[in-house]
Amino acid sequence: RRWNSSSPRLPPGSRGFPVIGESLEFFRQSPSLELFPFFKRRLERYGPIFRTNLFNQDLIVSMDQELNNLVFQQEEKLFQIWYPESFMRILGADCIIATLGSFHKHMRSLVLKLLGPENLRLVLLHDVQRATQASLLSWLDQPSIELKEATSSMIFSVTSKRLISYDSSSSDGKLWKQFDAFTRGLIAFPIYVPGTAFYKCMQGRKNVMKILTKMLDERKRASRQDSVDFLDLLLDDLKKEKLLRNEKIALDLLFLLLFAGFETTSSGITAALKFLTDDPKALQELIEEHQSIRKRRVDPDSEITWEEYKSMKFTSHVIHEALRLSNIAPVMFRKATEDVHINGYTIPKGSKIMIDPSSVHLDSTVYKDPIVFNPWRWKGTVEPVGGASKEFMAFGGEVRLCVGADFAKLQMAIFLHCLVTKYRWKAIKGGTMSLSPGLQFPGGFHIQLLPKA
Ligand code: HEM
User: Fold this and answer.
1) Which of 88, 270, 402 to mutate to test the pocket of ligand 1 (most atoms within 8 A of CB)?
2) Is 396 in the pocket of ligand 1 (CB under 6 A)?
3) Partners of 345 in the beta sheet?
4) pLDDT tens, 366-387?
5) What's the rounded Cα separation, in Å, for the pair 165 and 68?
6) Are residues 314 and 289 in contact, defined by beta-carbon separation less than 8 angstroms?
7) 404 Cα–ligand 1 center, Å
């Protein structure tokens, strides 16, 4: 075990300028699918493990597959969850990300009542279809729509209905619009000055928390027999098990679930559509898969069944390929709880580590021609792909694997089904992907939706 020998050599690297460190370069955009230049340049110069300073924080960056795997395998042993201050201030100090051990497991089990396989099959499959069909229909009359924004609002309507019984169509305030540049605000420099992405996000958080707190207070006063949404479930847990120690924990969980899902999944859908627009052969195979599902039905317009969803093999390949290439969660963070020795370097106890998942997703020894969109490369992989593996970490590692992963994939697949069976689309403008953190589609991807010819 290489990490137990003692050699006190720190990884190489630079801290950059005082205070801002190397942040400026980190946030610079790159209009290509290749490894993001910040990482590429340092990989060439220092190798896959190096030091930097971002958001006023010394960090050890890992582009090393062995170290990445070690970090995830040793979750809550040699390494532990840690996120920068900007992140925790926006998501809340009591959110699930900040929890460990059995309490973390309890939080996950609560969330899985909403996002686990049973509820996906019995409730969300139907909800997602309805919301998708309604959205697509409403796009038909418009000269063009910005895809990420349009799908964000669609996804938010599904999630917020089951979380807090929020009705997006009749509620006046556009709750989801509270966040402009959510991802960018998360991984930002935590200075609370008007105009910054961080400031905007903090304002958004304050407004949303006010609404959620009021909702929780009202709900506590109301008498009810059954639980109708996730908020009720949290209130029951607060009362019965006393595992959720206080309301702040419940509110932070609601907040995270409302906002962790739509930014990410809408980027996934946008990436998939962008790649399909540029690849007629893949699009044709996708259309055929969905047409053949439709043809097998007694009523071609009946709802998608769970079995049909599970049979969408090529769709699943398209989704994984889009997630691999778009690296929606651009970085993940942990800290070392012990001195760790690897590749001749020492990572001292307490070091903050930034994991770059694109280093494996874009590695030519793992994926042949890594920057080519090739959904067929997933053919024959054992299902379910998209859990945690050494080669695919779009949803993180095993212990803290994204609890919304199956929900996100379901939404992407249902969207593609509804889209290609009834419509076609024309790219109007944009769609350049940038691998700068939090900036997948600067300028957006605009399409015009048309009825199928
Ligand atoms: C394509 C879409 C998505 C991507 C790429 C994604 C990515 C990730 C990643 C990489 C992590 C692990 C972070 C870490 O280990 O440090 C994570 C965790 C998490 N995700 Fe997602 N996510 C997506 C969709 C969703 C959705 C739809 C929801 C919920 C509605 C969600 C809720 C969460 C939560 C609550 C966690 C924390 C899990 C824990 O700490 O145990 N995500 N996500």
Assistant:
1) 402
2) yes
3) 342
4) 999 999 999 999 998 765 445 6
5) 39
6) yes
7) 6
Locate 12 and state its tokens: 């190489």
Centre of ligand 1 from the C-alpha of residue 281, in Å: 31
With b meaning 16 or more CB within 10 Å and e meaning fewer, what string describes 177-216?
A: ebbebbbbbbbbbbeeeeebbbbbbbbbbeebbeebeebb
pLDDT value at residue 433:
85
Q: What is the pLDDT of residue 3?
A: 43
Ligand 1 atom 18, closest CA? 402
Provide the CATH number for the domain formed by 2-431 in this structure: 1.10.630.10
Q: Where are the alpha helices (DSSP H) in 245-403?
A: 247-277, 280-296, 306-310, 313-326, 358-361
Distance CA 345, CA 62 (A): 12
Exposed, middle or buried: residue 46 (CB in 10 Å: 0-12, 13-18, 19+)? middle
DSSP H helical ranges for 116-176: 117-119, 125-139, 147-164
Q: What is the whole-number distance in angstroms between the Cα of residue 261 and the centre of ligand 1? A: 7
CB distance 55 to 189 below 8 Å: yes
* Residue 72 Cβ contacting ligand 1 at under 6 Å: no
| Residue positions forming the annotated binding site for heme | 402
d(CA 383, CA 413): 15
Residue 304 CA to residue 408 CA, distance in Å, equals: 16
What would the 3-class secondary structure string for 7-39 be? CCCCCCECCCECCCECHHHHHCCCCCCCCCHHH
Atom of ligand 1 nearest to the CA of 72: 15
Taking the complete model, does pTM exceed 0.90, yes or no? yes
Say how many Å lie between the CA of residue 453 and the centre of ligand 1.
Answer: 38
Expressed in angstroms and rounded, the spacing between residue 402 Cα and the centre of ligand 1 is: 4
- For residue 115, what are the contacts with CB-CB under 8 A and spacing of at least 6? 124, 403, 404, 406, 407
- Which ligand 1 atom lies nearest to the CA of residue 334? 16
Atom nearest to 397 CA in ligand 1: 15
- pLDDT, tens only, 124-141: 999 999 999 999 999 999
State the Rg of the chain over Cα: 22
